[in-house]
Amino acid sequence: MRQAEIYRKGILAGVLTEDSGEYRFCYDDSYLQNEDSQPVSLTLPLRKEAYVSPVLFAFFDGLIPEGWLLDVALRNTDISILDRMSLLLLCCKECIGSISVVSVSDNEGGV
Questions:
Q1: Distance CA 4, CA 73 (A)
Q2: pLDDT for position 110
Q3: pLDDT for 108 beyond 70
Q4: Chain centroid to CA 17
């Protein structure tokens, strides 16, 4: 099981989990309670119930770089282009825009 915390403008919005070939995205309860909160994507409106998919949600997959930047990431790691969760965790901690993806294992060390 791999997990990533999803931040919107530096505020924890939810958690993305990959487990047994299934992806889940669930908004954080405190994020949902804040009346100023916005969805991370129009395709993932605010709701308490988890979103579940057999493939990585298109919004998160769209955060993964393409072209020469993806080539650089693939050349410098042993990650397969098919391992979308690993690419998301590797490349999207500080991506352009309001969303950041931080591996839960990165945060366990107090980072």
A1: 19
A2: 46
A3: no
A4: 8
Nearest to 41 by CA among 20, 16, 65, 17: 16
The predicted-structure confidence for 46-71, as pLDDT tens digits, reads as follows: 999 999 999 999 999 999 988 888 88
pLDDT of residue 106: 57
Cα gap 17→36, rounded to integer Å: 25
- Please, is 2 exposed, middle or buried when counting C-beta atoms within 10 Å of its C-beta (0-12, 13-18, 19+)? middle
**Does residue 84 contact residue 61 with C-beta atoms inside 8 Å?**
yes
pTM of the complete model:
0.88
Question: Are the C-beta atoms of residues 92 and 63 closer than 8 Å to each other?
Answer: yes
> Residue 17 in contact with residue 1, Cβ under 8 Å?
yes
